[in-house]
Design brief:
The structure is a single chain. By secondary structure, the chain is an alpha+beta fold. The chain contains 6 helices and 9 strands, in the order αααβαββαββαββββ. The protein has a 4-stranded antiparallel β-sheet. A 3-stranded antiparallel β-sheet has the order 3-7-6. It starts with a helix and ends with a strand.
Length: 222
């Protein structure tokens, strides 16, 4: 008891640097015992106010999700793919950049989607390269070639979503090899755009996937 009391006496001694509490080593055994009892009572009262569970079962129950919760996975509503017929590096590079920019785009209820607004201007500073584009019936090399196939794929997927209303869509000056005639959606930043409005009451999320053989656009309901 005396050893423990001495420990708490040392523990409860005020710091010498505090001028408001004078330091003294002269304390009676009764004072020491009283101090120890007070400290012990404080410790007991603090223990009753703070409960710490050592049960691994309780911790596991807190960490694991409820089995009756509804899954938050989005529901696929519409999907469309177009074949990648060209193996040109520049074209594929551009398609992959644009697909990554579009990935995860959310179209809220009442919102209008603009391909050019989301994707932005294709520039070499953003990593875009020259590739084939159709201009006035002629094939030329231009920065961002390949974007029209991405917009066409997105357009045909959007056609399958009942809540979407197509506001702007343009044909190419001649038939393109990756889609049936009249089903394409030409885009050119600053002039030709693909736009559609979400007239429904729920939001939709767009995912665009590029493989070795195709581009696939899928809309999910949130």
């Amino acid at each position: 008891m005396h050893g423990i009391a001495f420990f708490f006496f040392r523990f409860l001694q005020p710091k010498a640097s505090n001028p408001s509490v004078p330091y003294t080593a002269e304390r009676t055994q009764a004072e020491i015992d009283a101090t120890f009892a007070e400290f012990e009572n404080r410790a007991k009262s603090q223990t009753t106010n703070h409960t710490i569970s050592n049960s691994t079962t309780d911790l596991a129950a807190q960490a694991s999700p409820k089995t009756n919760e509804v899954s938050s996975e989005p529901e696929p509503i519409a999907s469309f793919s177009t074949p990648l017929k060209s193996r040109a590096n520049g074209r594929r590079n551009n398609i992959e950049i644009t697909a990554s920019v579009l990935e995860g785009t959310v179209i809220e209820a009442g919102q209008t989607f603009s391909f050019n607004e989301v994707v932005g201007k294709p520039t070499s500073a953003r990593g875009y390269q020259k590739a084939d584009v159709l201009v006035d019936g002629k094939t030329i090399q231009a920065i961002g070639g390949g974007n029209c196939q991405v917009s066409t794929t997105v357009y045909n997927a959007a056609l399958q979503v009942p809540d979407f209303e197509i506001l702007e869509r343009h044909n190419h000056s001649q038939k393109v090899p990756y889609i049936a005639e009249g089903k394409d959606a030409a885009v050119s930043y600053g002039s030709l755009d693909l736009k559609f409005q979400n007239n429904g009451s729920q939001a939709y999320k767009l995912f665009v996937n590029v493989t070795d053989t195709e581009i696939q656009a899928t809309f999910y309901a949130l």
